[in-house]
Amino acid sequence: MWHLSLSMESDTRETLAAQLRNALRRQIDQGALRPGTRVPSSRQLAKDLGVSRTVVVEAYEQLCAEGYLTSQRGSGTSVADAAPAEVGSALTTDETPTPEVWDLRAGGTDVSAFPRQDWIRSVSAVVRAAGPRELGYAPPSGLPPVRRTLAGYLGRVRGVRVRPEHLMVTSGFAQGLALLCRVLRDQGHDAVGVEDPGHPGEWAFIADAGLRPVAVPVDRHGIRVDDLAATGVRAVLTTPASQFPTGAALSPQRREHLLAWARAVDGYVVEDDFDAAFVAPAQRMPALQSLAPDRVVYAGSASKVLAPALRLGWLAAPPGLAASIERVRAGWDIGCSGLDQLAFARLVDSGAFDRHLRRLRAEFQRRRQAVHQHVARHLPGASPLSGDGGLQTYLVLPRWCAEESMVEAARRRSVLVRGGRFHALRHDDRPPALVLGYAGVRGSDLGRGLAGLATAYRDLTP
Ligand SMILES: Cc1ncc(COP(=O)(O)O)c(C=O)c1O
């Protein structure tokens, strides 16, 4: 059953068993055969190599005696875990208890809530039904039935106006952004406006594509369009549903203003809608794209609503960009896994995705309230910047509380958290802040993390 690719140096002075033994030993020493790797049965390897079985048995026995292989009745022969000296040191490391750490850095999601059974059912149905078309190459922009489902879903929940054939399935939001930057550069752009504070990872993507990320300030109403206009850029990346990381919703007046700016400069607004599913009802508005599909590039992701591991996202681009994006994409990766796309579409069509989101939304809403209550009670003087968006709280600290000292004090209490400056593109004298992510830590762990934070705050309070 197990196949082994083995090159034996034929040396007529050595027996076949010795040649085999040397070849195996060499592969183990060089790391090609990793600890724990199953090797074929003696009968199978003898057949594969065209030698008698006793040759293989003799080689295996010798390597077992030397500690290179281990053999157990019922589970066959495997490469031994490690040389005896290494086993000793590995044990000592394993026995050292690792301290518990509460990770409140923004960017995570609750992967423990991943709807495993529903996903297994979807995958199983898709694989059972898959014919030559489903198992072959998918069109680079995505399978047509999947794009139909997605276009219907995005229209239903976000008001997105897109024809299925103009919607692209991407490998996460990240790929959509990279594609877009490449096309913007080809069209003569040399800079892209970005929200400040924002996501340093996205600025790196933009810079890697040869464009300059230009900081645009945000306030309680989202991105400041007057400041954007003053930069001279003609494209901007925004998170209108819930500004990352402040959580502010772009106000209706700003939405109008932003779209008027895009028309005036003949430019584009890139709408990163990655966490819109978790915006509280009072703050929820249709996607910006629904107001101007000719000026807004709409991009979403399955990373927060299901799991980052899926690497699934989507992109709806205005006609002026869509064809170029498709052309570039076809030269990059020939599309995402068709089976995963189909499983995702099935999850949506069966209603399981909506059910899952309803549960997750309620859970995140509870956590958000818990964070706000905890802050009000235990961190006097600190105040959340915005109300009901996002998967993190942007907590403005009083001036006396140096941000770096707070991050360090929290770390000493085993709480990982980032300061506002981590998310800042410009270095100015903005008030100290913490960004508390609550999506990746569950109930009691969130409570313990927050308690650690309160103790750290008390440690610093003058
Ligand atoms: C601001 C922002 N946009 C989008 C995403 C989703 O990216 P992706 O779909 O590549 O995982 C993230 C993930 O953390 C994010 O923080």
Automatic annotation (TrEMBL):
- Pfam families of this UniProt entry? Aminotran_1_2, GntR
Task: Give every HTH gntR-type domain span.
Answer: 14-82
Enumerate the UniProt keywords alphabetically: Aminotransferase, DNA-binding, Pyridoxal phosphate, Transcription, Transcription regulation, Transferase
Lineage at the top is: Bacteria, Bacillati, Actinomycetota, Actinomycetes, Micromonosporales
The name this protein carries in UniProt is GntR family transcriptional regulator / MocR family aminotransferase
The record's annotation in PROSITE patterns points to:
HTH_GNTR
The similarity comment for this entry is: In the C-terminal section; belongs to the class-I pyridoxal-phosphate-dependent aminotransferase family.
Species the sequence originates in: Micromonospora sediminicola
Q: Which GO terms describe its molecular function?
A: DNA binding; DNA-binding transcription factor activity; pyridoxal phosphate binding; transaminase activity
Write down the superkingdom of origin: Bacteria
The protein's matches in CDD domains, at most eight in alphabetical order, are given as: AAT_like (cd00609), WHTH_GntR (cd07377)
